Amino acid sequence: MTQRPDFIVIGGGIFGCSIAWYLARAGAGTVTVVERQGLAAATTSRAAALLTRIRLKPGQTALSTETRRAISELEQELGFSLEQHRVGSLHIAASPQTQTGLEELAAAAAEHSEPFEWIDAEETFKRIPWLQTDRELRVGFMPEDSYLDPYQLAMAYADAAKARGVEFLLETEVTGLMRNGDRITGVRTESRDIAAGCVIDAAGPWAGLLAAEAGWHLPLAPVRSHYWITSPGPLFPTDNPYVILPDAHAYTRPEVGGLLFGLRDKASLSCDPRKLSADLASPVFPEDPEGWDVLIESGPGLQEFFPALAEAELAHYVAAPSTYTPDGQFVLGALPGVSGMLVASGCCGAGIACSGGVGRAIAELATDQASHFELGGCRPDRFGEIDSFSDSWRELCAQGRSGKTSG
Ligand SMILES: Cc1cc2nc3c(=O)[nH]c(=O)nc-3n(C[C@H](O)[C@H](O)[C@H](O)COP(=O)(O)OP(=O)(O)OC[C@H]3O[C@@H](n4cnc5c(N)ncnc54)[C@H](O)[C@@H]3O)c2cc1C
Predict the structure, then answer these.
(1) Were both Cys, which of 149, 221, 256, 330 would link to 378 (CB 3.0–4.6 Å)?
(2) Structural domains of the chain sorted by starting position, each given as residue range(s) with its CATH number in brackets
(3) pLDDT of amino acid 13
């Protein structure tokens, strides 16, 4: 093992693996990833993994575009396909408000030369057999959008990074940070201290704990994201597009012959990261362990578009904390008054889609290169000094998720 790596990345989720690959690809020096469980074992493996490219938050389309480029490069580098499901995305708007949002999406797609087709309701019902509604619809189809297995993508970043010499220390917890004055100089683990030139905090929903130890509260909180998967049935062809339905606070995609559908809670649940178990297999939100409160509250809204939901058999339920910020932007960059440390978190449910951009952006910052990305909106200090563990702050982040309408 390298005694003093140039870079230590804390966390082997998709951000940590992507950052490691980009650092290695840039030939920036020695890189060690320290992960307390297995790779991609936390939030990453639980994602629905919609790879929506066009995003209305400033700067995010550039991050997701980089992921699309990275996937092709990884496939070439590793010599196998990451099996993207290139089904396209359907964006369905019924109310005047969501129709305005859809027009903004169409304009953003045109700006980025991304194909966007307006399709009529008849064509929409043909493409999505479970969809039925009497409401007037406006529908946009984006044929280039896809989804994939998030675990496979994270492992592809990791495998490609390993092939370029990155070391992965698994089942090793970072228990603290080493510091010299205002400079973070390495990490502490149970077995030893590891000094490094630069420490990168990519610890997902736990990232705020390490940043707080370094002296800055990150503007984010772990907030519940969740979805259900129905049993297979003829209404759910596997080549259907994925669907964004902001009027129902819902999204869907095919999943092994059934339908995966996510609902955004009107009042999302958050948790205190200091009490969040390292093992997400244990229920994180005991107040509503199977999501029934949300199904009862928001199911009828989805049923307006998906009447067969009433009889659908729910075969699986997946819930996990995803890090949200009040403004829906990532948290990327240096902490004020702290040198030798960078942070990559605050994914707002877009961390798989933007993983390539986040990896590249952080590698560029870590190696003092000019950035390809506009990261001003992602600064860790953009909300000033906060108490990120307080109930009131967590509530602001939960509202950030409840208000989300994109894929
Ligand atoms: C239900 C759900 C649906 C989602 N759907 C989508 C989607 O459709 N599209 C999309 O783009 N995104 C989606 N996301 C979001 C996506 O999953 C996240 O943005 C992404 O996985 C974040 O990756 P990460 O590496 O930051 O975090 P994680 O995957 O959680 O990785 C962090 C890692 O850090 C490790 N760690 C923490 N503390 C320490 C420590 N002290 N020492 C060592 N290791 C440590 C953890 O063990 C963990 O492995 C979804 C998320 C959820 C929960």
Answers:
(1) 330
(2) 7-80+149-221+326-385 (3.50.50.60), 89-145+222-322 (3.30.9.10)
(3) 98
